[in-house]
Specification:
single chain, 5 strands, Ubiquitin-like (UB roll), five-stranded mixed β-sheet, 1 helix, about 35% strand, mainly beta
Length: about 70
């Protein structure tokens, strides 16, 4: 599947949902915000939000500090 991930064309195998993509990227869904085609995905919907060919995904990591 071809996706645009954070502005870069990316080929990804066997992902059906946002949760699948985060697992493949080894990202904790509790520490990121995900946007698919310019719409924020609610955390409780990550496992049921499907991905399709050529979707545009932005993933932002939460960073703490002081």
């Amino acid at each position: 599947m071809q996706l645009t991930l954070n502005g870069r064309d990316t080929a990804v195998d066997t992902v059906e949902t946002v949760a699948d993509l985060l697992r493949r990227l080894e990202l904790d869904s509790r520490r990121v915000v995900v946007e698919v085609n310019e719409k924020v995905v609610r955390r409780d919907r990550i496992g049921e939000t499907p991905l399709s060919e050529h979707d545009r995904i932005e993933i932002l990591r939460m960073v703490g500090g002081g």
